[in-house]
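user: can you give me the structure for this one chain? tokens are fine.
assistant: on it. calling the predictor now.
[tool input]
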Amino acid sequence: MATIYRDTLGTSAFTKDDALVMTLNAPTVAWSFRIKDLEEWLTTLEETMLREENMVNRLVMERLYFSLKGAHAKHKQQHNEIQTEAPSEADLMAYLEAYAAAINSEPYQP
């Protein structure tokens, strides 16, 4: 069953699986994407948002950039948590091996 909280600050809602879908009257989306993609997107935005021909869209690109930077910071926090709280050394090694392979893989070429 979904959960909805209402107070003087607004309404917040969660799905039955505890995914946040509204916070303080603002609809949100629970989503994920690969960190390697995230890092590529950040680099692309850094390179393009300061170009003269993109100045009209600069504020939108900056908002997107800083939102993605926040997601990247959250990833670092979660990654550190996994490293310090892994249930066993074998689990930690499996995680780190998979992480390294994913980060070092070639980008997708359609």
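assistant: here you go. The first helix runs from residue 35 to 48. Residues 37 and 107 are 8 Å apart (CA to CA).
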